[in-house]
Design a protein that fits this description.
The chain is α+β, with helices and mostly antiparallel strands and about 425 residues long. It has three domains: about 1-115 and about 210-230, no CATH class; about 120-205 and about 260-315, no CATH class; about 320-410. It has twelve helices and 15 strands. The strands form three sheets. The protein has a seven-stranded antiparallel β-sheet with strand order 13-12-11-8-10-9-15. A hairpin with a 4-residue loop joins strand 11 and strand 12 (about 185-190). Helix 6 runs antiparallel to helix 7, helix 10 crosses helix 11 (about 335-365) and helix 11 packs antiparallel against helix 12 (about 370-410). The radius of gyration is 29 Å and the shape is extended. About 30% of the residues are buried.
């Protein structure tokens, strides 16, 4: 094998903007340079290419040697970038190197923007239903949610452009999550296992992928093993199947080999999800029309907290339900206890802030620990007062409605 066993190759990614050029031409140019790489593109935009190759610590690209197997260090990344940009009159960036040879007056092909109805997403996750109102407010978009008790999973659905579930991170209680997406350009599935993007398992039915095996017609075992290890994205069937309890891993693998929307439908069946999930993703059914779906609109943080707490109180099996029932009784029947606690907390917070300010006036340096703790206590006191007030009014209204119902029942009798 040509490469030194101690050789360390790094996966290096890049983008080519080459108007008027087909991917086959770029692949042929890489073959002529004996570069080992992978090209990816969407059929609608063949002039926008994703390029992945291998480079060593000195910035030299992995190429196949003239007469032996494996790979060796070849041209530098910067030289390859300039060569590709000049030959195809394009803008090329690979790793830290870039070169723009686009003509000044060139008109790039336009990429049609997706309409708000063009993107549809279904997320399968153990996310608690009580958190969906808060997520709708955080993402600033309506979310439709339905539960699958047999799988202990929630299905969260939305359509159109905007922030995606997970845009601001995933909490442990929401993982593993499976994100199924259909839009104008792509059909894809992503398994989120740890919340770190590099650990995601991703598969796309809409993207075309082509490997360039350097200057060899048929790759040997060593070259193929290196490419499989370094250039292939993680599409681990086991990770996708593990995201949904009871999924058929073999059927998931078959779904990946089935092209287009048929592959997505096959995946939904392999995961044991309801048939209507495919209808939502293909646009035949709106998220709000899914069986048993509840839609949560983004109506502000206080409203979201109220709805989340309300959902928890309606579920006697929810963790912490007994605590909330006790909390309701205290704020309703002994509101003075809550007011005293809030006043004490606010007083301590104010005192800490005052001490920090006084120390700054005296020494010129504010004590950050005192100041931060004081601010936290004040904010918590305000939030606690708001929640207690909302909870008390809600419970008093519920009791009044209950009493009216009993009176109406007695009068009717």
């Amino acid at each position: 094998m040509a490469q030194d066993p101690a050789q360390r190759w790094n996966r290096t990614e890049g983008v080519l903007v080459v108007p008027g050029t087909q991917p086959d031409a770029v692949a042929a140019r890489l073959e002529a340079e004996r570069v080992v790489a992978r090209l990816e593109w969407y059929p609608a935009t063949p002039h926008l290419l994703s390029l992945t190759l291998l480079a060593d610590a000195d910035g030299r690209v992995a190429v196949t040697p003239p007469s032996r197997g494996g790979v060796m260090a070849g041209t530098r990344i910067s030289e390859l970038v300039e060569s590709l940009a000049r030959e195809f009159s394009g803008d090329v960036t690979i790793g830290p190197a870039s070169f723009n040879a686009l003509p000044v007056d060139v008109a790039l092909p336009t990429v049609a923007s997706e309409t708000p109805e063009g993107s549809r997403t279904v997320v399968v996750s153990p996310l608690s239903a009580y958190m969906v109102p808060l997520q709708a407010t955080l993402l600033e978009r309506p979310l439709a949610v339905t539960s699958l008790p047999a799988l202990d999973r929630r299905i969260v659905m939305y359509s159109g452009e905007g922030n995606q579930l997970g845009s601001f991170g995933w909490d442990k209680e929401s993982l593993p999550a499976l994100v199924l997406t259909v839009d104008a350009r792509d059909i894809a599935v992503r398994a989120v296992t740890t919340g770190e993007s590099e650990d995601d398992a991703v598969f796309s039915w809409g993207m075309t992928s082509q490997y360039v095996w350097g200057g060899v017609a048929e790759p040997g075992p060593a070259l193929r093993a290196l490419v499989d290890e370094m250039l292939t994205d993680s599409t681990d069937v086991s990770l996708v199947a593990a995201a949904v309890p009871g999924a058929d891993a073999e059927a998931v693998a078959e779904a990946f080999s089935t092209p287009g929307i048929d592959g997505l439908v096959a995946l939904i069946d392999a995961l044991g999800l309801p048939d209507w999930v495919a209808s939502v993703l293909t646009g035949r059914l709106a998220p709000a029309e899914a069986p048993g779906a509840v839609v949560h609109e983004p109506r502000g943080l206080s409203n979201a907290v109220g709805r989340s707490v309300g959902l928890m109180l309606q579920d006697p099996e929810a963790p912490g339900s007994a605590f909330w029932q006790t909390y309701i009784r205290v704020v309703t029947e002994r509101p003075w206890l809550m007011r005293a606690g809030v006043a004490l907390e606010a007083g301590i917070g104010g005192a800490l802030i005052g001490t920090a300010v006084h120390r700054r006036d005296r020494t010129g340096v504010a004590h950050r620990g005192l100041l931060a703790t004081g601010v936290v206590l004040l904010v918590d006191a305000v939030a606690e007062a708001s929640l207690a007030s909302w909870t008390r009014h809600r419970e008093l209204r519920r009791r009044a409605d209950q009493e009216m119902a009993l009176v109406a029942e007695e009068l009717g009798a």
